[in-house]
UniProtKB/TrEMBL annotation:
Top-level lineage group: Bacteria
Annotated PANTHER family: ABC TRANSPORTER I FAMILY MEMBER 6, CHLOROPLASTIC
Lineage, top ranks: Bacteria, Bacillati, Actinomycetota, Actinomycetes, Frankiales
Protein name: FeS assembly ATPase SufC
Keyword 4Fe-4S listed: no
Pfam families: ABC_tran
Keyword annotations from UniProtKB, A to Z: ATP-binding, Nucleotide-binding
Residue ranges occupied by any ABC transporter domain in the UniProt entry: 4-250
SMART domains: AAA
Species for this entry: Frankia casuarinae (strain DSM 45818 / CECT 9043 / HFP020203 / CcI3)
One of the record's GO molecular function terms: ATP hydrolysis activity
Length: 256
């Protein structure tokens, strides 16, 4: 059983010039193995801050509350230790790693997380299969990570990492944004195939409802102004598709 538990999470960020600002103001969320949760909300509501806080980005300071994975204190872990514990973050804006090929990057990530290098023959096969499933050209493996990648290539590369790392908890921050219809279908299929194994709890962060036509989460949470303000099943996504976020932000001093 893998359970990520977030309790009363308050997170502040050190801004450039304007001091400390509280972004998350008491978030509660539980994600269990095999479950898919969508977190939706307007821009600026704190979705990326939540994902960075789970992964351990040094810029975001937890001032109150807790995050645990199977009872272990995640907040006490370094970024690396969180990855080894089975937490994976696909960032909204993946970074370039000049001079490091996709192939080497994936192998070192998997080695670091598993604690030993994967056997070469099975590894090569595993990468090939996963890349084919994401309709990625094998030559892609020799390119440098995110250097000159299109938006769609960056997102496929994130999903490729997830497929190979087999995390306990995967946080996917706007993996759908900027994708055309074909890329969205391929990326969604990649997420679905990880989901189908039932070994990963997925936190799908998204601004738009369109990815939820391909991936139906069991749970939908709405975030506004640093809090979860509404929760429901997939039917809530349908409501949001109709009516947007207006009723959550009106007068609430929410999005900036
Ligand atoms: P979302 O992902 O929902 O769009 P974010 O978590 O990116 O929201 O941002 C939430 C709020 O926190 C926004 O008002 C944003 O400007 C602010 N914020 C996030 N990160 C920083 C930062 N590093 N410095 C200053 N403000 C930040
Ligand atoms: Mg944003
Ligand atoms: Mg964001």
């Amino acid at each position: 059983m893998s359970t990520l538990e977030i309790r009363n999470l308050h997170v502040s960020v050190e801004t450039d010039g304007e001091g400390t600002r509280e972004i998350l103001r008491g978030v509660d969320l539980t994600v269990r193995k095999g479950e898919t949760h969508a977190i939706m909300g307007p821009n600026g509501s704190g979705k990326s801050t939540l994902s960075y806080s789970i992964a351990g980005h040094p810029k975001y300071t937890v001032t109150e509350g807790s995050i645990t994975l199977d009872g272990e204190d995640v907040l006490a872990m370094s970024v690396d230790a969180r990855a080894r514990a089975g937490i994976f973050l696909a960032m909204q804006y993946p970074v370039e790693i000049p001079g490091v090929s996709v192939s080497n990057f994936l192998r070192s990530s998997v080695t670091a997380v598993r604690g030993e290098a994967p056997k070469l023959r099975t590894w090569v096969k595993e990468v090939k299969t996963s890349m084919a499933a994401l309709e990625m050209d094998p030559a892609f493996a020799e390119r440098n990570v995110n250097e000159g990648f299109s938006g769609g290539e960056k997102k496929r590369h994130e999903i490729l990492q997830m497929a190979l790392l087999k995390p306990k908890i995967a946080v996917l921050d706007e993996t759908d944004s900027g994708l055309d219809v074909d890329a969205l279908r391929i990326v969604s299929a990649g997420i679905e195939s990880v989901r189908a194994k039932g070994e990963t709890g997925i936190l799908l962060i998204t601004h738009y409802t369109r990815i939820l036509r391909y991936i139906r989460p069991e749970f939908v949470h709405v975030m506004a102004a640093g809090r979860i303000v509404d929760e429901g099943g997939p039917e809530l996504a349908a409501v949001l598709e109709e009516s947007g976020y207006d009723r959550y932000v009106k007068g609430g001093g929410a999005a900036t």
